[in-house]
Amino acid sequence: MKKLVLFLFIFLSGDLIAQSPNTPITALDTTKRDPVKPPQSKDIDPATGLNTGYYIGDNLSMVKNFSRFYKLMDAAGLTETFRSRGPITVFIPGDEVMAKLSAGKIDSLLKMDNLPELIALVSYHAIPGKLTLGKMAKQIDGKTGLATFTTLSGGKLYAKRDGGRLILIDETGNQSIITRNDIKQHNGLFSIIDRVLQPKERL
C-alpha cells in the first residue's frame, strides 16, 4: 500500500510520465485550467450523455449512469484528481455494471478502515496519458498479443484482442470488454467497460 501512496503522490505532484506504444517520456500537463464553458449540444456524446468539453471528474458527477462509480471516487478523495489532472484515460463501469458488486462489498469499501482498498480500486481504473483504442491495439500487436499498462494505482492492467473486441484483464484474472472507447474529455479520455476491474490485494 505504501507503493500506491507514493505513486499517487508522484502523479498529483505532476512528475508522473505518460505512456505510449513505445513508452516515450512526456510530462503530464499540470497547468492551471480555465473554467469549462456551458455544454453545447454538439459536445454531447449521444450514447453516454458525457460532455466532451468537460473534465472527467465533472462528467462523472453529472451523468446519472456513472453515479455509483462517482460515489466511490468521491469517497476515496480522488474527485479533484479526476477533475483537474491529466491527461488520464479512465475505464468506467456504468451503474448497471457496478450493481453486480454486492451491497456488502460496497459497504465494506466505504468504511474508513478500508480507505486504502477503496483508493486502490478506483485509481486502478485510470491510466496516465491518452490511451486510444488504436494505441492499445498497436501495443497488443507489438507485444505478442498481450499488452501491459501501469495504472494510477501502480498496479498492472493487461489487454488483448478477442476477434474485433479489446479485452482488459485485471490482476485477479477477470476480463472486461471495452464496449465504447475514445470518448474525448477536457483532460483525457473515457472508455466504457462491462466489468469492474479488481486490483491485486497489496500489503
CATH topology of the domain at 6-11 and 43-131 and 180-193: FAS1 domain
Structural class: alpha+beta
What is the typical, i.e. mean, pLDDT?
Answer: 81
Strand order of the largest sheet: 4-3-9-8-7-6-5
CATH homologous superfamily title of the domain at 6-11 and 43-131 and 180-193:
FAS1 domain
Could you tell me how far the N terminus lies from the C terminus, measured between alpha carbons in angstroms? 6 Å
Q: Identify the CATH class of the domain at 6-11 and 43-131 and 180-193.
A: Mainly Beta
Model regions low in confidence, pLDDT < 50 over at least 5 residues = 9-33
| Shape annotation | globular
Number of helices: 8
Under the CATH scheme, the architecture of the domain at 6-11 and 43-131 and 180-193 is: Roll
Percent strand equals 15-25%
* Strand and helix order: HEEHHHEHHHEHEEEEE
Largest sheet: 7 strands, mixed
Helix content: 25-40%
How many β-strand stretches?
9
Rg, alpha carbons? 16 Å
